[in-house]
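Ticket 4471: requesting a sanity check on a complex prediction with flavin mononucleotide. Repro inputs:
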Amino acid sequence: MSPTPSRTLVLLAHPRLSASRINAALLDAARDISGVTIHDLYHAYPDGDIDVAAEQQRLLAHDTVVLQFPIQWYAMPALLKHWFDEVLQSGWAYGRDGNALAGKGLFVAATSGGDPAGYGRHAAQFTLTELFRPIEASARYCGMRWLGHVAYGANERINARLPEFAIDYRSRIAALARGDAHPEHDSR
Ligand SMILES: Cc1cc2nc3c(=O)[nH]c(=O)nc-3n(C[C@H](O)[C@H](O)[C@H](O)COP(=O)(O)O)c2cc1C
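Returned structure tokens:
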């Protein structure tokens, strides 16, 4: 049986996309995939004033959500956290009658200054799977399907690896949009 296409929303949260190397390249690679919508939060809300109704409508119109962001202080950038706080409201995303997101998939695509594969062994002491637990917990609390994460490293070899990262990201997002994705955790 062929998988059911999954309308996929990429929520990009980069505070300085104009200075970005990896996220900008990943975004370009995923831009024209059929069934994929890209929404740049810092571009949409430069003053942080989130249009909650519009964000909720956008979520309702998609089956899978991808959070794409650079890791900052072991967490998502502030506007994305603000988006969680504002958009995922009681009675809508959770709580009494709050099932708007139930069954939708959530996937994280992050970039890191540290080598993502060595994250748990070096300075951070925690793996990315551990650091992303609050996102996983939030997704599960809202009845979403946790689809895991991929992380790309911004180390000194980044220029050489950018094309590889871009191809990898495009194929992952395309798989999500085809409805052909399985939970996984991967660090590049
Ligand atoms: C304020 C700030 C905090 C950061 N904190 C972390 C961190 O905790 N862990 C990490 O691996 N990288 C950290 N970084 C590095 C960024 O994750 C890295 O520069 C980014 O992923 C590169 O992607 P880009 O080329 O799209 O900007 C931080 C960068 C900034 C600006």
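Notes from triage: The CA atoms of residues 58 and 177 lie 16 Å apart. Leaving this open until the requester confirms.
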